[in-house]
Structures are given as C-alpha cells and as structure tokens.
Amino acid sequence: MSEASRHIVCPNCNSVNRIRGGKDARKAKCGRCHQPLFTGHPVDASAKTFAAHIQHNDIPVLVDFWAPWCGPCKAMAPVYERVSSEFEPDVRFLKVNADMEPDLTARYNIRAIPTLMLFRKGNVVAQQPGALDAQRLRAWLRQHIASPLPASQAS
Ligand SMILES: [Zn+2]
C-alpha cells in the first residue's frame, strides 16, 4: 500500500475512519468508539454492517459465507482466523452466517457453503466456492488483491 490515506470501517461501531498514509493501521483506534480498528480476528457481519464494510473500506474486503451445520466451514475457521491476522491491515476479513442472512446469500447467489468472496470498492472481484487450506487461501488472496481493478471499476 502507498502513502495515500485510507478509509477504514471500524469493526466495532461501523464508523468510517481516515488513516493517514504511513501510519500503522494495526495500532490505530477508532475516532468514535476508541476500539482498535484491527484485532487480528475476522469480524462477524450482519446485512447492515456488511454493507458499511464493502462500501466504505478503501482496503479489499474478504467475506466468508459460512453456516453452523457445515463441516468444511468449521475446518476452515481456524485457517481463516490465522490468515486474517497475517493480512491485516491490508485486507478486512468478514464472516457472514448464511443461515442468519438469507437476503445476502440470495443477493450474491451463494450456492456453496463455504464461499469466499473478495470485494474492492463495493464490487465482487473474486469468488471461491469451497474451503481452502491456509496455503491456498494466501495464494488466492495475494493473486486477487494484487491484480489491477478493471478499468470500468477504477475510480
Ligand atoms: Zn468505532
């Protein structure tokens, strides 16, 4: 990431914070609720907080659509947790419980659980049905956060 400032959505109160370029976002606290902006853990999102995160974050947002009854989801949970601590503060990791948020799973046409979906500036840039191990998750993420946005989506 460059020296440009970035907008980061607080995982606690969902307000938008502006982090100046060069500042370590891992140490930044929310201007409103004073909680850390990054905790090294994925953030459980509802439909409302999901919208705030994908629309207002300048960093890519990765979403894990999971369900409590899904064995592969349980197997991937510690992997997702570990990789989130590695990629913060360059990527925001969210978790969406598909059973609790049927509107979101319908809107994004989620047919497999788990499904990983990567957003940049509110747009879906990559989608991965099925669980990944840590090595493949890292590789998949690096590939898609590094690729340039399509011209139509660049601002
Ligand atoms: Zn906050």
Q: Overview of this structure, please?
A:
The chain has 155 residues and is α/β, with parallel strands linked by helices. It contains 4 helices and 7 strands. It has helices at 47-56, 71-87, 102-107, 134-146; strands at 6-9, 16-19, 43-44, 61-66, 92-97, 115-120, 123-129. A 5-stranded mixed sheet has the order 3-5-4-6-7, with helices on both faces. A two-stranded antiparallel ribbon has the order 1-2. Helix 2 (71-87) links the parallel strand 4 (61-66) and strand 5. The longest helix is centred in the middle third of the chain and has 17 residues, at 71-87. It starts with 5 loop residues before the first strand and ends in a 9-residue tail after the last helix. The model has no long low-confidence stretch (mean pLDDT 93). The structure holds zinc ion (ZN). Zinc ion binds next to loops.
The end-to-end span amounts to 16 Å
Largest sheet: 5 strands, mixed
| Protein structure class | alpha/beta
Q: Percent helix among the residues?
A: 25-40%
Write down the overall mean pLDDT. 93
The helix/strand series, from N terminus to C terminus, equals EEEHEHEHEEH
Percentage beta strand: 15-25%
Please state how the strands of the largest beta sheet are arranged side by side: 3-5-4-6-7
Could you say which overall geometry the principal axes of the C-alpha atoms support? globular
Poorly predicted runs are none
Q: Report Rg.
A: 15 Å
Count of helix runs: 4
User: What's the quaternary structure here?
Assistant: single chain
Bound molecules: zinc ion
Number of strands: 7
